[in-house]
């Protein structure tokens, strides 16, 4: 029986109590019959499947209680996590100020795991206590992506999980597997078209700015299509050199033996 997904990722929701983590979970499509469920240890779990560049990524999302007594739960679950969602409430400055505590806890037990900062309850922006710029600066300092979301309006929830999944797969070296399925940029399409009609040796003769030529040369050397051209040219040069060497050898050999080549 074929699997219903291509990749499986474990994601942890972290943040103070009452920031709306359960609201976020409820806004995601349910991916299994038994979830969401709550366990006696203070965690809630839900699975959902997202489509990322043509690949099905199944997310196993664990929500830990924001109360301090559940820090031991975070310690145990963060060790196996491949992505972290740090949640705060944009209408609650205290929940944003508490992120340092959660970030320290996560970094201690899951160093290097990709993280996304999420500001919840954007639909209550008229009560905002945390400026979007402040959150963006905090995320930038800690090398995180940043989103403001609204479960009520179904805004940016799936986008934030897609970005986290992309970061996690990239960290584990899986992104290259489906890179060919991505939509090419206009710049790459132009480079591919040019390189298909020329080779790395004739790029300098093109009527283009030097910066564009430099980029084309780099693209040509790394492009498989142009690399084949380079290899074919190299093979042709090697063949000619081999023929010249052989001719030179026979000429010297015949002269030494007193033979005359007509």
TrEMBL record:
Domain SOCS box residues, every copy: 173-222
NCBIfam families: small_GTP (TIGR00231)
SMART domains per UniProt: RAB, RAN, RAS, RHO, SOCS, SOCS_box
PANTHER family in the cross-refs: LD44762P
Cofactors required: Mg(2+)
Keyword Phosphoprotein: no
Pfam families attached to this UniProt entry: Ras, SOCS_box
Similarity annotation: Belongs to the small GTPase superfamily. Rab family.
Gene3D superfamilies: P-loop containing nucleotide triphosphate hydrolases (3.40.50.300), SOCS box (1.10.750.20)
UniProt GO molecular function: GTP binding; GTPase activity; metal ion binding
Domain of life of the organism encoding this protein: Eukaryota
Protein name: SOCS box domain-containing protein
